[in-house]
User: Fold these one by one.
Assistant:
Number 1:
Amino acid sequence: MNTMKRKDRILIGMTLIVLIILGYKSFVLDPVDTEDPKDEAVVVRMQGILDERHSNILYKTGILKFRITDVKVEDENDFTGRYRKYLIGILPFGDSYFSSDEQ
């Protein structure tokens, strides 16, 4: 007695495919890719600042996460960046911007 109809199985399959594509995008394509060591140092510094800023229970448990998606470095003390917030690490729900002036 299979109670699932063909349309139901197709919709579930399509949902799984979309989640796999979204996961690939979130984990592989979104994070910032730095080749310059100076940029990498700024990304590490920005990560530390954002970790302090987002230290509530939702981030500590992993329900909400963030990833740095873009960094523009003028010099070591003058930079801007963008980071994206994720629900359960996969579903993006907001972009935020960060500047070295905000420290």
Number 2:
Amino acid sequence: MEKNSQTIYGDYKLKFMTGIEYQRFVNKWSFGIKYEHGFNKIEEYPTDCYDCFYGTGNMREDNIYLTTNYSIFKLFNSRLKLNTGVSLYYSNLNFSGDYQGGLSGGGTRENSTYNTFGAAPSLSILYYPIERLFISLNSNLRYGWSKELDANSNQDRKVNEFVITAPELKIGVNF
């Protein structure tokens, strides 16, 4: 689930992302790099206004993170961990779609690309059912400085990005 400022209304939407992550562990600290990719359809049908735009948009997203995490505590013989962390990230996102509605009824076309740099504090719970396999629930708040290119008007502007991810499910293997 993610709330993303690049969609028209910025509501929580279920998204599917794939990725790969490498982490190096040193005592209670871990350092790593992560890449994520997603292509999702975002349906936006607001029910609280009569002159809003509505329809389905397409979101293509690529994210790269440099991560640092710290294990606050471990329970049950180190099978359950609570981690906190912060990441620096770069995101390249394209959001496009043809929307109907609006005050005039003529609709609108959205086609914007965002290049963003920012920081993302996070909190996660990791469970190790066996020694090397882990299941993780992670939440983070990404805030960044973005340059938006609107392909319809061929103009760019600087905007702030916010993304709230809660929860993100990860399944992985420690090597």
Number 3:
Amino acid sequence: MPHTTTMSIRELTRSGKKLKEYDYIDIEDRKSHDYKGVFVPEKYADEVKAFLQKRLAKEHQNRVEDIMRFAGILSGATENLSAQEIKAKKMREIE
């Protein structure tokens, strides 16, 4: 089970020793208690970065594919096709 805690940004900057005691630290606003993010110590940093790079690359690729599908509509690649035919064509492209 992960060893975690919740701190404000101010507490985090003042408590350098605590950074290595936890697997991760949730960061929240001290007054409003709004969640701000998570701090990950250096022992997990490379894994987290790799995960985020993969996820961001996938999101970027999905946005590019959406734009290219829209561009296909504008270029006439789907001209004279019914909605059902366009849907079937997209399903074939996905498979």
